[in-house]
Write a structure and sequence with these properties.
It is a single chain. By secondary structure, the chain is mostly helical. Helices cover 67% and strands 0% of the residues. The protein has helices at 8-49, 84-88, 103-122, 126-148, 153-166, 175-200, 207-220, 225-246, 258-281. α1 (8-49) crosses α4, α4 (126-148) runs antiparallel to α5 and α5 (153-166) packs parallel to α7.
Amino acid sequence: MNEFDLPLPVFIAAASIVGLCIGSFLNVVIHRLPKMMEQDWQREAAELRGEPVPEMEAITLSKPASRCPHCGTPIAAWQNVPLLSYAILGGRCGHCKAPISLRYPIVELAGGVLAGFAAFHFGPNWTAIAAMVFCWATLALACIDLDTQLLPDSITLPLLWLGLLLNLGTHFVELPASVVGAAAGYLSLWSVYWIFKLATGKEGMGHGDFKLLAAIGAWLGWKLLPFVILASSAIGAIVGIGLMVFARHGRNTPIPFGPYLAGAGVVALFWGQALTEAYLSRF
């Protein structure tokens, strides 16, 4: 029941095209979701203070229509075609000629490549579809964290619950391993957070990191958590040292950890089991 009656090349091509379109939508999520969260906080703060709720332009994932951030001109449908529109427009707004961030085509391309590779890796089945959702969610979370140092609950928590529900059918691991993975993922970084805070009086990471690692544990099980933690920590340390040496970032300048967790989670999704077994076989 898990398999689709589709030739693998057709499934890969279809997944890649859908992934490009999802990548275009992820650009909207990455840009607007933090603004939506900020508006919610402002409303809640005003209500707690007993003040009138400030008037703000309503922002959702669908409204207002996409427009150029420089001149405000609405973006036509043909200007929203993934990758092609950016190439045709030469990376500039069709009206004011202001440059369009390279982030947009990169996210679109990443959405398509990740979906196509998931289709290739898992084959034409529901597990591949689930893997695509995992990749798209972690891609959005990584970009939002880079921009704002936030990992929205509206993505991390549904991702966690979806991982548990999918593993009712053992898509990636058995359910007990999934449940333990969710708990262990959360508690491991929660413990590090409190040890660091008690030792230094400072917060070393955000609560969103706990939830993201819990979601990864729910999808991939507890056995891959050491790989995810070690890989993300190693890459984060290398990048952090590089920023201090070459970009002269101060030691107190916060560096988002979510992108490294997300990247390690995607690597673990595809190769974590093989890499872990290869490492353990050496001993």
